[in-house]
């Protein structure tokens, strides 16, 4: 049993409060170490660096890091299914040392396989332990994981980290939603982790199928992961009110690790776990690295300690923005304002206006008249961009529907500067998702 002092607000008080100077020194040393490791151990990385005319010794400062070529997900797809099968030559350890197989969800194409050693797996748990502790998880919590564990990394590391910090951990694996809610009620779970979409769906099921008010369960904190939402204020508020619980955001990915977390201070952003990750923000137009707050860009990230299939300057496609404010939790780690505010793939121009799907979610979830689900479709009609928005309502009077439609259109116009064709559906009729909700469809991309 690891000794833990419950009153200390940090999982690792030393790392989480390092001075910026010491933190950056640590990041540089770790970056040099992982770069050297990949250069020596993997043909994929060595070829990448050699083609850029770079040797690890060239990196002498954090500013030099940008000289290292980025790795795109498509590059990882290309090297895979080759020897050593199935990871290909990006693998940096003998196959015998691999203990974990995971794969990406494949939402954007062929899934990418991810190898981890036991050392990597302990690192995953340590990353998650940092975030759970920061969100107030303590050994007296009984944590429920309402998630179908499988080949995706989702919530596996959360499970191990929950155990590592001493929580009693209850796997909700193969149970269906109703059985999960009943089990949470039966054991008196105090915390849970799921995607924001699923947390909202569970509340629906609890009320409509079981006659249980989720606020009457004992859940006092919910960690959301897998998709944005917990930092979209209207979504956070909706979940917090339904469950009478604090809702926290977390961000990570199979190829990267658990890199970002909202802390108990809830200052409206995600901390980067900078002792374990090096996060850079790249300007979407110029490709330059953004070092000052105020401009969003694409997150390029390095997992500083992951050894089997390392993540060095990975192009995450997540859009983030540095916060100019300090969080009052005392951590020295950078804060990304509003968390992951979009995906480079999803942010699209409609009628010449930049549209982030999260902005639409913000509006829909801020209107109590509307259900939790929605769906956005962008297409072309007579060569003009057209947006349809499907929402759920619980009323059927024509007058009331027109009032809601007017209010929704006005709010959307204010927040996104665009007009929408609104379609109403009965509550509970739009598709529900457990992971990776597919609510935004851009049909123009299919030509
Ligand atoms: Zn904080």
Give me a quick take on this structure:
The chain has 447 residues and is α/β, with parallel strands linked by helices. The chain has 11 helices and 21 strands. The protein folds into 2 domains: 345 residues, 3-Layer(aba) Sandwich (Rossmann fold), CATH 3.40.50; 99 residues, ANL, C-terminal domain (GMP Synthetase, Chain A, domain 3, 2-Layer Sandwich), CATH 3.30.300.30.
Walk me through this protein's architecture:
The chain has helices spanning 13-16, 20-41, 43-51, 73-79, 118-134, 156-164, 177-187, 196-210, 233-243, 357-366, 398-416, and strands spanning 98-103, 113-117, 142-145, 168-171, 191-194, 221-224, 246-253, 257-261, 269-272, 277-282, 289-290, 297-303, 314-320, 335-337, 342-343, 348-350, 353-355, 370-381, 384-393, 421-426, 440-442. The chain is of the alpha/beta class. It has two domains: 1-345, ANL, N-terminal domain (Rossmann fold), CATH 3.40.50; 348-446, ANL, C-terminal domain (GMP Synthetase, Chain A, domain 3, 2-Layer Sandwich), CATH 3.30.300.30. An eight-stranded mixed sheet has the order 4-3-5-6-7-8-9-14. Strand 8 and strand 9 (269-272) form a beta hairpin. The longest helix is centred in the N-terminal third of the chain and has 22 residues, at 20-41. The protein starts with 12 loop residues before the first helix and ends in a 5-residue tail after the last strand. The protein binds zinc ion. Zinc ion binds at residues 263, 265, 267, 271, 327, 329, 331.
């Amino acid at each position: 049993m690891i000794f833990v002092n419950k009153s200390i607000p940090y999982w690792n008080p030393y790392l989480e409060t390092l001075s910026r100077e010491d933190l950056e020194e640590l990041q540089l040393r770790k970056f040099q170490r992982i770069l050297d490791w990949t250069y020596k151990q993997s043909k994929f990385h060595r070829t990448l660096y050699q083609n850029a005319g770079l040797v690890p010794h060239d990196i002498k400062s954090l500013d030099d890091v940008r000289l290292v070529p980025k790795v795109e997900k498509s590059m990882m797809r290309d090297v895979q299914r080759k020897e050593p099968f199935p990871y290909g030559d990006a693998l940096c350890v003998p196959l015998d040392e691999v203990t974990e197989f995971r794969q990406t969800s494949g939402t954007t194409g062929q899934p990418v396989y991810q190898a981890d050693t036991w050392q990597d797996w302990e690192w995953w748990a340590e990353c998650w332990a940092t975030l759970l502790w920061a969100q107030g998880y303590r050994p007296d919590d009984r944590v429920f994981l309402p998630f179908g564990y499988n080949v995706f990394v989702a919530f596996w590391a959360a499970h191990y980290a929950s155990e590592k910090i001493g929580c009693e951990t209850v796997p909700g694996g193969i149970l269906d939603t109703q059985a999960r809610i009943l089990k949470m009620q039966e054991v008196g779970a105090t915390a849970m982790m799921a995607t924001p979409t699923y947390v909202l769906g569970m509340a629906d099921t609890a009320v409509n199928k079981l006659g249980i008010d989720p606020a009457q369960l004992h859940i006092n904190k919910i960690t959301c992961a897998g998709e944005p939402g917990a930092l979209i204020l209207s979504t956070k508020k909706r979940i917090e009110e339904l469950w009478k619980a604090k809702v926290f955001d977390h961000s990570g990915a199979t190829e990267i690790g658990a890199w970002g977390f909202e802390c108990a201070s809830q200052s409206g952003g995600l901390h980067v776990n900078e002792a374990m990750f090096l996060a850079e923000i790249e300007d979407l137009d110029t490709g330059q690295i953004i070092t000052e707050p105020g401009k969003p860009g694409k997150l390029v990230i390095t997992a500083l300690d992951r050894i089997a299939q390392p993540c060095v300057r990975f192009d995450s496609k997540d859009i983030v923005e540095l916060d100019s404010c300090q969080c009052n939790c005392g951590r020295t780690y950078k804060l990304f304002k509003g968390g992951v505010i979009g995906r480079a793939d999803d942010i699209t121009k409609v009628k010449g206006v930049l549209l982030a799907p999260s902005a639409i979610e913000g509006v829909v979830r801020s209107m109590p008249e509307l259900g939790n689900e929605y769906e956005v479709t962008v297409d072309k009609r007579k060569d003009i961009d057209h947006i349809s928005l499907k929402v759920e309502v619980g009323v059927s009077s024509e007058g009331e529907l027109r009032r809601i439609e007017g209010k929704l259109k006005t709010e959307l116009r204010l927040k996104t500067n665009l007009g929408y064709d609104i379609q109403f559906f009965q509550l509970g009729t739009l598709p529900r998702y457990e992971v990776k909700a597919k609510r935004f469809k851009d049909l123009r991309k299919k030509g």
